[in-house]
Amino acid sequence: MWLSSRARAAAWLLISMFIMEVQGSYIKYNTTGGIVDGKLNVHLVPHTHDDVGWLKTVDQYYVGSNFSIQGACVRNILDSVVVALLKDPSRKFVYAEQAFFQRWWVEQCVEVQEVVKQLVDSGQLEFINGGWCMHDEAATHYIDMIDQTTLGHRMIKKQFNKTPRIGWQIDPFGHSGVQGYLLGAEGCYRGSLVDFTPYPRVEHIFAGAFPGHYGPPNGFYFDVSGSDSPVQDDTLLYDYNVNGRVNDFIDAAMAQANVTQTNHIMWTMGDDFQYQYAESWFREMDKLINYVNKFIFPLLVIHRWPPDFSQQQAAQPS
Ligand SMILES: [Zn+2]
User: Fold this and answer.
1) CA 92 and chain centroid, separation
2) Cα 75 to ligand 1 centre (Å)
3) Bridge pairing between strands 125-127 and 193-195
4) Using one digit for the tens of pLDDT, what is the confidence trace for 231-257?
């Protein structure tokens, strides 16, 4: 009897393990979507906004000290993003502030620098704005705007032979005409200005006003410190929620589409000092792209760059 019970328990354990292995096994997510005309195209833009000195000093933000003031460490962000990008060539990321990137770059060994060069060449990592910082537009003299932007661009040119294609002024608390001129000036960016504040329309510059902050829609904040629900797609575990999360996605996308004149909307997937554990963001975006594209054909999710986004916007009346 004892043997029989034990045998039954062992058999059940074996079956359970088999089921778990099947249900909880590796899932290859399809993240290779592209723009589809006639559908609502949702462009996910993974980014981090790293103030070059705010609640902490630039040094404290870089090394991650004084966590009691703000849990921010830019060194962790850049380390983490590189690892996450290497996991999947369809993953992409934009980075702006050269004050941090250059500090990190000189600390890397030749092998890591080579890997990062490849990520930049392939377009997985792209520098946007590319200035030393994302300057304020109200109190800053235009000479200083030009100088600090030139400094960052020169370094990017020297190290990667690239020139940033896109402006990215997402947190200046209002825009100036000078900034508009600089963004539109020949030899500067050919791209777009992106911000959550309204901007006077200037020729050749795409101006967008986000419904809220420069973060994702409510419920899609996937930082390691965040509390929004991850996409739970293991049917053996409690809180399986793929259908619910896909529906949440549709609701958020439709809400934004209803205040957008074109069929291209952008989700800024990041916020202040995000991606210190980049995988937490990328993993959830991979799942969303996979499941939304798989189940909801009126919608499409894409990992795309702002340049693609602005080109689509520019091609349509707004
Ligand atoms: Zn800021």
Assistant:
1) 7
2) 17
3) unpaired
4) 999 998 889 999 999 999 999 999 988
Ligand 1 midpoint to CA 281 (Å) = 20
Can you read off the two tokens belonging to residue 30? 């399809």
Give yes or no for a contact between 182 and 208, defined as CB atoms under 8 angstroms apart.
no
Ligand 1 center–CA 240 separation, angstroms = 36
Q: What is the pLDDT averaged over residues 37-46?
A: 88
Q: Rounded CA gap, 309 and 198, in Å?
A: 18
Of 186, 191, 220, nearest in space to 205 by CA: 191
**pLDDT tens, position by position, 183-194:** 776 444 544 455
- Burial code (b: 16+ CB inside 10 Å, e: under 16) for 114-152 equals ebbeebbeeebbbbbbbbbbbbbbeeeeeeebbebbebb
C-alpha 307 to ligand 1 mean position (Å): 22
Would you state the structure tokens that stand for residue 116, as one six-digit string?
């990062």
pTM: 0.84
The angle formed by the CA atoms of residues 219, 220 and 221, to the nearest 5 degrees, is 100
Residue 216 phi/psi, 5° resolution?
-75, 170
Say which DSSP state 138 is in. Answer: S
State the distance from the centre of ligand 1 to the C-alpha of 271, rounded, in angstroms.
Answer: 9
Do 274 and 77 meet the contact criterion of CB atoms below 8 Å apart? yes
Which residues are marked as active site? 171
User: CA 196 to CA 208: how far, in whole Å?
Assistant: 7
Cα(23)–Cα(237) distance, integer angstroms: 9
Q: Name the phi and psi angles at 85, rounded to 5.
A: -65, -35
User: Residue 171 C-alpha to ligand 1 middle, in angstroms?
Assistant: 5
